[in-house]
Structure formats: C-alpha cells, structure tokens
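Escalated from tier 1: adenosine-5'-triphosphate holo job.
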Amino acid sequence: MTSTLTVTGLSASYGLASALKSIDLRVEKGRCVGLLGRNGAGKTTLLKSIVADPEITVRGDVAIDGRSLRKLATYKVARLGVAWVPDTRRIFTRLTVAENLDIARRRGVASDQLERVLEAVPLVRGLLKRAGYELSGGEQQAVTIARALMSAPDFLLLDEPTEGLSPLIVEQLQASIARLPEIFDLGVVVAEQNFRFVTDLADEVHVLETGEMVWSGTPELLVSDPDLVDRHLSVGEK
Ligand SMILES: Nc1ncnc2c1ncn2[C@@H]1O[C@H](COP(=O)(O)OP(=O)(O)OP(=O)(O)O)[C@@H](O)[C@H]1O
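Tier 2 regenerated the structure:
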C-alpha cells in the first residue's frame, strides 16, 4: 500500500539553539531519500525530529498519510512504523545476535520476518550465535539495521551507517540497503557524509547546510554539478 511520510515547515532547536529551519521533506514507501551535509548541518536533528526525540523542540509537522506524529511519544512513532537506526549502533552486547533480533519483532509481524531480514542483510546470517560484544563495527551496523527491520517498519531512518567502516563492509551494506525499499516496500532515509554512498543509493537527494535545505534533486543532477558539490558539501578552506 502506498504511504507517505511528510515533514512540513519543520524547525527544530536544542533549548534556545536553533538547529533546523523550515524543512520540507517527503518520503514515499518503496523509495530511498538521501540527506547530505557537512558536520553540524542538521541531518541527525532532522531524523531525531521525525522520531520525536524529546531532546528537541520542534515546530511544524511530521505526518504519515496526513496523521500527525508531532504530539506522540517516540515509542508511539515507532509503533506507527518508523524505525530509527542512530549512529551509535547500540546493540545489546550481552545478548546473542539472534536474541537482539528476536526482541525487536513486533507483535503481529509474520513469523517468517527473520528469514526475510536475513535474506536482505546476508552479513547477519553467519553472526546469529555470536554475542553482541564480539562484533566489529561493521557487523554491529548490519545487526542494528536487521534489528530495525524485524519490526516490519514502513519507514527506516539510517543515521551515518558508514561512519568509521572499511570500504569492503560499506560496499556490503550499500548492496543490502539498496534492496530494502523494494523487498520490504519500505521508505528509507539515509543521512550521510559519504557522498558516493548516498548518490549511488538514493532516488532523491536533499542537501542541508547550517540547518537549511539548500538543494533537492536527483543524484544524477548533483553528481553532474561539481560547483554545487563544492559550495555545499566540500570540506576545507572556502
Ligand atoms: N544535543 C545537542 N545540544 C545542543 N546542540 C546540538 C545537540 N546536537 C546537535 N546540536 C547542534 O545542532 C546542529 C545540527 O547538528 P546535527 O548533529 O543534527 O548535524 P549533522 O548534520 O548530523 O552533523 P554530523 O554529520 O556531524 O553528525 C549543530 O549546530 C549542532 O551543534
């Protein structure tokens, strides 16, 4: 079923410090949307605002098919089908990977969900009996994504999934994430500093700079405009 997550006129702040201004975003199920921006641009804040992180004060609206999520607690947003994978990759280190996945399955989710998730994120299959504390950073990232999928969400928000990972594992994660929208009829939002990762994956890209959305379009358009990339995304002297 088609479903759309919409962010309308969203402004966000930490106490008195403004972090986002007038953001509009639309994510449809079955599509992948990329968020790019330098350090501190507001990518994490946007994802946290969508999941109603209590640390952030928000104006504007976040809704799924017109139903506002604004006044809901974070756990209720999750119940409505929005899964968030923060950049901290927190897994339960004393539990096995299988146990980490098992506790994330929502009531009512089909019993074959584990098998579907393992097919989608094959890296996790060989880790099921391992304890969380034994995993490498890349393996933890794969497990946190798999765990989020166990709740059969409609929307998956990924914050910096490639941070600190080796090129080989980034390639494996990219291959997995690329297939998620179609396999699970899922809307994916990927916030990243890794330009190539996002432009390879996303159907549509938004560029944030100091809390504002400064550019939106297709990855092809962004890749073909080095001046634009230099202006908004390159790091170093200007
Ligand atoms: N807990 C916080 N308290 C106060 N200000 C914060 C907090 N977290 C982030 N900020 C500020 O909000 C702004 C946006 O930060 P945010 O983490 O969303 O950026 P980002 O694009 O995700 O950056 P990065 O790629 O470095 O993670 C920055 O100015 C940052 O300093």
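The domain at 4-232 is CATH 3.40.50.300 (Rossmann fold).
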